[in-house]
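Researcher: Here's the sequence for the chain we discussed earlier.
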Amino acid sequence: MDQDLKNNILKSGTTIIGIVCKDGVIMASDRRSTAGTIVMNKNVQKTVQINDYLVTSGTGNASDIEMQKKIIAAQLKLKELKSKKRPSVKEAANLIGMITYQNIRQPAMIPSIVGTLVGGINEDGTAELYTVEPAGTAMKVEDYDANFGSGMPYVIGFLERQYKKDMSVKDGVDLLVEALKSSTQRDIGSGNGIDVITITKKGITHEVAQEIAPEYKESKGKARTNSFN
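Model: Thanks. This is the structure I predict for it:
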């Protein structure tokens, strides 16, 4: 395979974020899908509810992310039917980690690369957040994480200064909206819209769904006209 194509495939252009609040978990992402330097889609929801209790956000190859969502939903349902109880958020995260680990170790023409944030509600009403790195390790998030998306450097620095351990979900939603604005202004792989989903004992709610539309304004300076007469 051509090296340029490989390089483009391996780029994970996106911004996904998750934070832990005193009364729940919040996950958010932008809406831009890219192939190298080309914007392929401007309205991709990357933070998605998988079932009644689980939400995932993915960065990496779009086809792998879509397939992962289908597989995890089916596997969790099978696990529930076999064990007669609902899997925990930790079990779901570890299952995604195992799938990720297996995928990157299978020889393929197009290498699989997916980083995932996993948030959900356990049966006891507690909300948890996990990050699954592209190598397959699942780790519990105690504060905030942005996995390995291209917008990660912009939002992590912002959250480092603005995040508070005991903040409410309401304040957390506002924080993530501002964090996404930071990445969409500076990261070429992120933009076009934002989605913010809250996960609390009351359930899963799509709190923010906004489109970022381009606005063209007249420049303050007058256009220069060259004359050759």
